[in-house]
Amino acid sequence: MNPADLATAEFVEHQASLVRTALQRAVPEDCHPLAAVSRKLRDIPPGVHSEGQLFALTGVCRYFQAPGRDCAQALEAAILLAKRAQALGRSQERLTALMCIALIHGHLDNHLEALEACVLARNVAAELGLPSAEVAMLVLASESLRISADPSQAEAVARKALSIAATTCDVEEHRVLAWLTIAKLHLTVEQYPDGLASVGQARAAIVEDADPGLAALIDYVEALLKLATGSSDEAVALAERVATYAMATRTAEATLLSMAVRGAVEAARGRAVGRARLWTTLEKARRMPRELPEVLAASIVAGVASGDTAWTERARAELQSFTEARRSADRLKATLVRGPLVGLGALGKRFDAEAYERRLQSVKDRLLSATPSAPASSPDTCHRPWGRKSEHATSAQGGPSASG
């Protein structure tokens, strides 16, 4: 190794040491050194201390991906990790990076980017012979499609995940999530008996030591479906379990859903306090857009169960308006900018809705294909959102990827 490469390798080892030290602390005192790691490693050749680079980037991604931290930093690290892993022929590390990219874009409501990352990750998982990772990516894709208002495709992708899950093991949680996604779809489009059948499948698949948050979400969806189909007593018991979980965790999301289902149960029984509780919950949910569709579904159920047509129609109109606004925002974020590497540059590109629709249709086709395959026309491309903070982040055009 020549002196220049030796010095560079020592620099990489120093960065890896910073990451190792930070991850060993319960609460790192200063995350600024971690925030600079991806930028410092960007111009270093992949072959120089490759193990150190892969370790450092993986650590940065996992650190910033934790709740309450900077998703933009995690995304930047994951993108560089995917590039490095592809250059080095390290498929397992590339799969890890692509799965992180998909999760982060989903969290940021960059749904087309999330879907494209899911496709790429599924391709790599298939090459590695990892059906459990394939199932995980299909389930994540189905949820992104559900959120971005494509219910028929979302159900088709979820059922594709279930068909693969039927031939493998260690995918119990993903099987539950697939059925739960289908149940939430039926809840949103007011096909309540079908939703009950799906949530029953989710409950049958859940294991005893399942994540309490997942169990509470099943309780929430089932409570609303029971309420909509006239089983109010069962809905009350399920709503109480959701409230118990919300009290134990005290997270904003759990508290909001607990208030929504409790308000729906009370409103369905003709109590004025239920309407007031739902109204208050809706006001809070409008400041938490990811939870608003679930709360509006509860409002619709309350109106249906109580026979209040005016209330039901107002909730339906708001849900439709919100869904259309979300789709427009996703289209804008996905098509406004096309830039190299991490999405910076070429900021003046004009809006191209046709390109967005072509990309979206391509992703849907590839998700449902029997044999996953990446398009041969172009290399993978990954992008990061604008800005530093996740709540203000948007994404650039071009799908997630592993090469520049």
Structure description:
- The chain has 404 residues and is mainly α.
- The protein is elongated, with a radius of gyration of 22 Å.
- The model is unreliable at 337-349 and 374-404 (pLDDT under 50).
- It contains 17 helices and no strands.
- The chain has helices at residues 3-24, 32-41, 50-65, 71-88, 91-107, 111-128, 131-147, 151-165, 172-188, 192-205, 212-228, 232-249, 252-268, 272-285, 292-306, 309-335, 353-368.
- Helix 9 (172-188) runs parallel beside helix 11, helix 11 runs antiparallel to helix 12 and helix 11 (212-228) runs parallel beside helix 15.
What's the short story on this structure?
71% of the residues lie in helices and 0% in strands.
Map the helices and strands:
Blueprint: H1 3-24, H2 32-41, H3 50-65, H4 71-88, H5 91-107, H6 111-128, H7 131-147, H8 151-165, H9 172-188, H10 192-205, H11 212-228, H12 232-249, H13 252-268, H14 272-285, H15 292-306, H16 309-335, H17 353-368
- Strand segment count: 0
Q: Mean pLDDT, nearest integer? A: 83
Bin the helical content.
over 70%
Biggest beta-sheet profile: none
Count of helix runs: 17
List the defining traits of the structure above.
mainly alpha, disordered C terminus, 71% helix, 0% strand
